[in-house]
Write a structure and sequence with these properties.
binds ligand 0PR, 7-stranded mixed β-sheet, Aspartate Aminotransferase, domain 2, Aspartate Aminotransferase, domain 1, alpha/beta
């Protein structure tokens, strides 16, 4: 660090240089991100609460009651108004909290379990690997069926007396698939096992698409076996990052991981992060109020419209799609060149692509920043690559 500071103008000139090297969502070139440009109303709300710290809610009582309120709004959206939870940094923290609650609660109920295990689909986000590592859980991966959803028979085979949680995903990271959560719910009720649903991606779109007749599978607290749900406002919710959500059916799950905070006005915390921003809560609250169901329906509907355009266009350009999209993700590969080669060609044309690991394919997440005109340019490039 220099002895003396430099002028603000110089600081910002240098900052601008860094920023100019970043990609922008508005270019339409970011094809593999689940984040998007934050909605201006969310940004304004975020800025208004920049100094509020939910790690010490005694000082920020207004923000705390806003968090309680927004958790109730999210619960309402997901089948149960009377729920508990927090607005946190994202899906990773939410999934770690859920696994921590499942482990602690189950071990309190059954102290004979010595080596706790969890069952997740092969398609689960890597945050469960982090959770398993941090919480000393054995991670069992259930195989997928032919449409890349968790195979129920495989789950049943993996259940043991040490199973403390089963995880289903509503909107998988790589393909946007929705696991058969209703079947998982029944299995968990029969076997008295904690069920967590990772709806980090799908939570902000499935309920809205169902309102307009999509008939996507049930995945929320309406299913009695579901104990917790991850839902990320910073993905399809359009909130600024970092904004995640974790919801629990009952307070006892949060209590199972509560840690005393003796010198604070509120004397316990269940979140992993201590000092945590109230700004994310404000953005989530503001956007739910401002956009309402109508606004979010419009966003999901538009993304699905662009997804269908892309899906059809990819097939018409001679490529092979991995599976029919349930949500706004399209995965495809070339019949002639490898996935890596195709990715390289697209990258050389300025597209930021992402490759799925299972199965290997190019994966495009049709977030709100990807518009019809971007898809048309992309399809032209894909046709050219294929020699059309
Ligand atoms: N659960 C699911 C189903 C997810 O897809 C993700 C992240 C998480 C949990 C973890 O969420 P956080 O990243 O908020 O902790 N899915 C994206 C992914 O890994 C995250 C992402 C977003 C990656 C934007 C890249 C990017 O540019 O692909």
């Amino acid at each position: 660090m220099e002895e003396k500071g430099i002028s603000k103008t110089e600081v910002f000139k240098k900052l601008r240089e860094f920023k100019d090297r970043d990609m922008t969502y508005s270019s339409g070139k970011i094809l593999g991100s689940m984040c998007t440009f934050p909605h201006p109303v969310g940004l304004e709300a975020y800025q208004m609460f920049m100094e509020s710290n939910l790690g010490d809610p005694g000082l920020f009582k207004g923000t705390k009651s806003m968090e309680t309120d927004v958790i109730r709004l999210l619960g309402d959206l997901l089948g149960k108004r009377d729920i508990h939870g927090n607005i946190i940094t994202g899906g990773t923290e939410a999934n770690i909290m859920a696994m921590r609650a499942a482990r602690n609660f189950t071990l309190q109920e059954d102290p004979t379990i010595t080596d706790p295990e969890i069952i997740v689909p092969k398609s689960a986000h890597f945050s469960f690997k982090k959770a398993a590592d941090m919480l000393c859980l054995k991670l069992n991966e259930a195989v997928l069926d032919s449409s890349y959803r968790i195979d129920i028979k495989s789950v049943e085979e993996l259940i043991s007396k040490n199973t403390v949680a089963i995880v289903g995903v509503a909107g998988t990271t790589e393909l946007g698939k929705i696991d058969p959560i209703e079947d998982l719910s029944n299995i968990c009720l029969e076997n008295n096992i904690y069920l967590h649903v990772d709806a980090a991606f799908g939570g902000y779109s499935i309920p809205f698409l169902n309102e307009i007749g999509y008939e996507l599978p049930k995945f929320d607290f309406g299913l009695r076996g579901v104990c917790s749900i991850t839902i990320d406002p910073h993905k399809m919710g359009l909130a600024p990052i970092p904004t995640g959500g974790i919801l629990f059916r009952e307070k006892k799950y949060l209590d199972s991981m509560s840690i005393e905070t003796p010198y604070l006005t509120e004397n316990s915390q269940s979140t992993i992060v201590g000092t945590r921003t109230g700004a994310s809560t404000a953005a989530t609250w503001a956007l739910m109020k401002y956009l309402g169901k109508e606004g979010y329906i419009k966003i999901s509907k538009e993304c699905m419209k662009v997804t269908k355009l892309l899906y059809r266009g990819i097939i018409d350009s001679g490529y092979e799609v991995v599976t029919e999209p349930q949500l706004n993700i399209v995965a495809f590969r070339s019949k002639e060149i490898s996935v890596d080669e195709l990715a390289e060609k697209l990258e050389s044309l300025g597209w930021a692509v992402s490759k799925s690991s299972y199965p290997r394919a190019i994966r495009i997440i049709v977030m709100p920043h990807i518009k019809e005109n971007h898809v048309n340019i992309l399809l032209d490039d894909l046709k050219r690559i294929n020699g059309y």
